[in-house]
């Protein structure tokens, strides 16, 4: 069985994603869609995709698409994914999953009601190094996990017209980078009881640098830093009562773990991804569809909702109210 993929969006994220299909078996990209027909046609020609659609609606209604990968700016995810789910198409939705918690909840409720597969494209969880880190934690190698510390800063020149900074496109550090931080903390600690945030803003109000503290009722915590105005290592450290695991920079697509235990030399494991690393999440979607599953156990929908709730709490504390894009498909 060959699973047929459609790509919604023709930006940098879609470019990265489709290149990794060279490492995927049992699936092929059959169509691409964009609000700009010329962009879809150019993308299709460059990547050898048979069909280019001049709207997301046409892509979704295409008979030769089983899965829609949503690679547009955050506020456009909800409408595209909703239409795809309504059409019975499985969806892989880029992170952040939506611009708002209400939008995320609506998609999850609809996917569950319709029995349609839905997953957030949190590729980090499928990287071999992160998979191994989770296995080590689950086996008790570092004892009880008590803390997660992580940073992700990437300096970008401020441009209010760029997607990274445009408030109407979900720009800012929280949705673009903070989603990785909250997700890695959630992956190893679970969902927090409280979220505390502080940060700086650009002249247009988009969040520039954000510090987050995720607090748990039993005293566990995650300290997280996201920034678009400062380059940082991009390291994550999982601290346990018997040691720690460092997911070496940059943690959101790593190839190295450093395991530290009291009284012994640090152990380094090198576990590179295949290709750029996006193929691993594609394999998971294909595996789930072949098994008749509607959710992934690695990125379950409840995890996505809990991460989205934390992100929205951060934005509200920064005085930012996110919105979904109301533009019709």
From TrEMBL:
Claim: Oxidoreductase is one of the keywords in the record: yes
Domain of life: Bacteria
Residues in GFO/IDH/MocA-like oxidoreductase domain copies: 131-246
Residues annotated as transmembrane: none
GO molecular function, one term: nucleotide binding
A matching Pfam family: GFO_IDH_MocA_C3
Residues of the Gfo/Idh/MocA-like oxidoreductase N-terminal domain: 3-120
Keywords recorded for this protein, A-Z: Oxidoreductase
PANTHER family: OXIDOREDUCTASES, TRANS-1,2-DIHYDROBENZENE-1,2-DIOL DEHYDROGENASE
Family (UniProt): Belongs to the Gfo/Idh/MocA family.
Protein name per UniProt: Gfo/Idh/MocA family oxidoreductase
């Amino acid at each position: 069985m060959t699973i047929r993929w459609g790509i919604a969006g023709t930006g940098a994220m879609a470019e990265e994603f489709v290149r990794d299909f060279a490492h995927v078996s049992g699936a092929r990209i059959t169509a691409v869609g964009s609000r700009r027909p010329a962009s879809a046609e150019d993308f299709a020609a460059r990547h050898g995709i048979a069909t280019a659609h001049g709207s997301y609606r046409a892509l979704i209604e295409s008979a030769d698409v089983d899965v829609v990968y949503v690679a547009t700016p955050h506020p456009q995810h909800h409408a595209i994914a909703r239409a795809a789910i309504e059409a019975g198409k499985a969806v892989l939705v880029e992170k952040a999953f939506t611009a708002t918690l209400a939008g995320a909840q609506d998609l999850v409720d609809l996917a569950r009601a319709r029995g349609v597969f839905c997953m957030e494209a949190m590729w980090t969880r499928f990287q071999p190094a992160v998979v191994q880190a989770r296995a080590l934690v689950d086996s008790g190698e570092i004892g009880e996990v008590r803390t997660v510390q992580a940073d992700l800063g990437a300096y970008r020149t401020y441009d209010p017209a760029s997607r990274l900074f445009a408030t109407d496109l979900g720009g800012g550090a929280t949705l673009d980078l903070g989603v990785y931080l909250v997700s890695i903390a959630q992956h190893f600690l679970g969902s927090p009881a409280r979220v505390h945030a502080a940060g700086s803003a650009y002249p247009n109000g988009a969040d520039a640098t954000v510090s987050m503290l995720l607090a748990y009722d039993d005293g566990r915590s995650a300290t997280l830093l996201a920034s678009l105005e400062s380059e940082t290592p991009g390291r994550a450290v999982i601290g346990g009562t018997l040691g720690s695991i460092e997911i070496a920079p940059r943690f959101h697509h790593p190839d190295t773990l450093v395991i530290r235990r009291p009284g012994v030399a640090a152990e380094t494991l090198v576990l590179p991804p295949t290709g750029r690393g996006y193929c691993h999440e594609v394999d998971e979607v294909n595996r789930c569809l072949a098994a008749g599953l509607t959710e992934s156990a690695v990125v379950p929908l409840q995890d996505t909702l809990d991460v989205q709730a934390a992100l929205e709490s951060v934005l509200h504390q920064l005085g930012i109210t996110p919105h979904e894009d109301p533009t019709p498909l």
